[in-house]
């Protein structure tokens, strides 16, 4: 049986076996001596660990600096050049999501007329990043530099604003897609909520504060059945998490407008399509599948009703975006303090003529000269709404917005781009890759 003494002074490696004949004082002395040795060892180990950790963090931070996709003199030079307007009184615009579909087109349009544009994009892999890289290359060739980075990166955003006094921010970076929110809800919170707040925090602190124009979505109308959808209709019944984050964006921008005097304009886009579009959207994936001889799934609503969308052509959307930037009033805050009330606007940017999904497929079949293999299924309950239809009278009155491209013409242009981008050649009796 182990004695109390054994318990107090166990026989462990590094410790001599206690000679029972020694007095308790002697034992205590030894114990104390060995404790101080241990203490010294512990100190030594702590010092060693600390110096290792600080060396590691030095290596980390230097390699982060060396490998960072942003930073450095050349990078700063590109930003300064890209942000410089080439027309008198031109704007200097930070376009987030610049390698995205709408972002690319808006950046090009601004650059073409002589505004300064700096793009920002995180090149995530929600869809094929090579398409984003191709858009970036096209932008670069037209004088628009796209920074690789995330809107959640406060340091990067602060650096950009330190380099350039942006007059406007065109905020198009987002996690898009209605149905993907079921699979990856966190990505919507990350980009559409956290990213938006990070960006607005930097904008409100910037001096001068930029005016912000950003992409909301027609999906905020959710279960609204009153047609056409007007900006005054209810938007408190979203049908998807995506829609909920876009609606939250409208509330969040209102808060920054109210507290900090940020001029903000939210644009509710209605199913935007066109060349350089998004591969996750129906018109794009249908085209791909039809050409590859694969089946397409066409959703159908309650009572076998066809689903319909107010498909809006990209060039019309670009005009709405540019007009919003042109009519945006200056923010009224400075150094994070509001000086007076600032502009807060929300507009529908749609086409005002909904088309059913089967009609969309018919148009594609005609332009592609290939019959689709259709699988018609009940619309899954994953966030879709049965139809959208925009009332655009407000945008018409205040922005001069007037869409001019119908789905027939718009899809013809899309198909032409698709065939050339993916290398299809016309052949008698069809197309070949
Ligand atoms: O305007 C908007 O608010 C939204 O428009 C699109 O969302 P959505 O209208 O759902 O566009 P698609 O995914 O291209 O779907 C268009 C229609 O095709 C249908 N569809 C989609 C996919 C499919 O495989 N089959 C199918 O029938 C959908 O149910 C829908 O009725 C975009 O994906 C959103 O990012 C955007 O915010």
Automatic annotation (TrEMBL):
Catalytic activity, as annotated: UDP-alpha-D-glucuronate = UDP-alpha-D-galacturonate
Keyword line: Isomerase, Membrane, NAD, Transmembrane, Transmembrane helix
GO cellular component: Golgi cisterna membrane
EC numbers, comma separated: 5.1.3.6
Compartments, record wording: Golgi apparatus, Golgi stack membrane
Record's bilayer topology term: Multi-pass membrane protein
Biological process per Gene Ontology, one example term: galacturonate biosynthetic process
SUPFAM superfamilies given in the database record: NAD(P)-binding Rossmann-fold domains
Domain NAD-dependent epimerase/dehydratase: from-to ranges: 93-330
InterPro entries for the chain: Epimerase_deHydtase (IPR001509), NAD(P)-bd_dom_sf (IPR036291)
Keyword tRNA processing: no
Protein's recorded name: UDP-glucuronate 4-epimerase
Lineage: Eukaryota, Viridiplantae, Streptophyta, Embryophyta, Tracheophyta
């Amino acid at each position: 049986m182990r004695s109390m003494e054994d318990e107090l002074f166990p026989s462990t490696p590094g410790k001599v076996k206690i000679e029972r004949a020694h007095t308790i004082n002697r034992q205590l002395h030894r114990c104390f001596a060995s404790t101080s040795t241990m203490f010294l060892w512990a100190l030594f180990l702590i010092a060693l660990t600390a110096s290792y950790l600080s060396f590691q963090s030095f290596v980390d931070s230097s390699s982060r600096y060396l490998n960072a996709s942003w930073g450095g003199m050349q990078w700063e030079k590109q930003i300064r050049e890209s942000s410089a307007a080439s027309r008198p009184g031109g704007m200097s615009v930070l376009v987030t999501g610049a390698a995205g579909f709408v972002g690319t087109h808006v950046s090009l349009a601004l650059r073409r007329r002589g505004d300064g544009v700096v793009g920002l994009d995180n090149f995530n892999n929600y869809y094929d990043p090579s398409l984003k890289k191709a858009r970036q290359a096209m932008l670069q060739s037209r004088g628009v530099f796209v920074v690789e980075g995330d809107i959640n990166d406060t340091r990067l955003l602060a650096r950009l604003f330190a380099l350039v006094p942006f007059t406007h921010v065109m905020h198009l970076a987002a996690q898009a897609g209605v149905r993907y929110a079921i699979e990856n809800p966190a990505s919507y919170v990350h980009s559409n909520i956290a990213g938006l707040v990070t960006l607005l925090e930097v904008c409100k602190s910037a001096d001068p504060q930029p005016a912000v124009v950003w992409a909301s979505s027609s999906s905020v109308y959710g279960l609204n059945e009153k047609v056409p959808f007007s900006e005054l209709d209810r938007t408190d019944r979203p049908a998807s998490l995506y829609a909920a984050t876009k609606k939250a964006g409208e509330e969040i921008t209102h808060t920054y407008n109210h507290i900090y005097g940020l001029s903000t304009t939210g644009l509710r886009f209605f199913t935007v399509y066109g060349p350089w579009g998004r591969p996750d959207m129906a018109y794009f994936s249908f085209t791909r599948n039809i050409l590859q001889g694969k089946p397409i799934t066409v959703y159908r609503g309650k009572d076998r009703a066809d689903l319909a969308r107010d498909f809006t052509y990209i060039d019309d959307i670009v005009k709405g975006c540019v007009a919003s930037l042109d009519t945006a009033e200056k923010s009224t805050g400075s150094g994070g303090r509001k000086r007076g009330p600032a502009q807060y606007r929300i507009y529908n940017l749609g086409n005002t003529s909904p088309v059913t999904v089967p009609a969309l497929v018919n148009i594609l079949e005609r332009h592609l000269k290939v019959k689709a293999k259709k699988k018609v299924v009940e619309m899954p309950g994953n966030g879709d709404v049965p139809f959208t239809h925009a009332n655009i009278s407000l945008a018409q009155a205040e922005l001069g917005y007037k869409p001019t491209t119908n789905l027939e013409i718009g899809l013809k242009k899309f198909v032409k781009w698709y065939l050339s981008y993916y290398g299809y050649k016309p052949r008698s009796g069809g197309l070949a890759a």
